[in-house]
Write a structure and sequence with these properties.
This protein has 157 residues and is α/β, with parallel strands linked by helices. The chain contains four helices and five strands, in the order βαβαββαβα.
């Protein structure tokens, strides 16, 4: 039986693999599962609407979220954003159904279980139409996105 090791970093991929590039976060997670990841790093598929308070252990030092992000840059651009207080709404969410990513982080803050550091890593999508598989452009940028995530796993956290 494997001993539970408290994670120092959680990597959470989110997105919809049925909408082409929107599945980039999930695809990164699938590729990371193939690598030799230390036991104190959790690599998780969060699906399309992750319930952060129930998925992330309280007080995790670092949470890395991987997703497709529309930020206005050219398709294939790799983003890295550190989320802090200024990104969180100071009002509690109105519903527990369909919580957004920032709502989930705010809920964790209200519960006192938020990660010490949150980094959002993503790719500007080229195609989010219905269909399986990443667009050729996103597929070609996948190694760079994976490397950006792996960089977040190296100390210091």
């Amino acid at each position: 039986m494997k001993e539970h090791v408290k994670p120092r970093v959680v990597v959470l991929g989110i997105g919809n693999p049925l909408c082409r590039d929107d599945g980039a976060g999930i695809r990164v997670i699938q590729e990371l599962w193939k690598k030799d990841i230390p036991p104190d790093i959790r690599v998780m598929d969060g699906g399309t609407s992750p319930d952060l308070p129930s998925l992330i252990e309280p007080g995790v030092p670092k949470l890395v979220i991987v997703d497709a992000l529309r930020g206005g840059k050219e398709p294939g651009y790799i983003y890295r954003l550190e989320l802090d207080e200024s990104h969180l709404s100071h009002q509690p969410p109105e519903s527990l159904h369909g919580l957004g990513l920032l709502d989930g982080l705010m809920m964790m803050k209200m519960l006192g279980t938020q990660p010490q550091k949150v980094v959002l890593t993503g790719i500007e999508p080229a195609d989010t139409s219905h269909g399986l598989g990443l667009s050729p452009l996103a597929e070609s940028r996948l190694p760079a996105l994976i490397e950006a995530v792996v960089d977040e796993l190296r100390p210091p956290y």
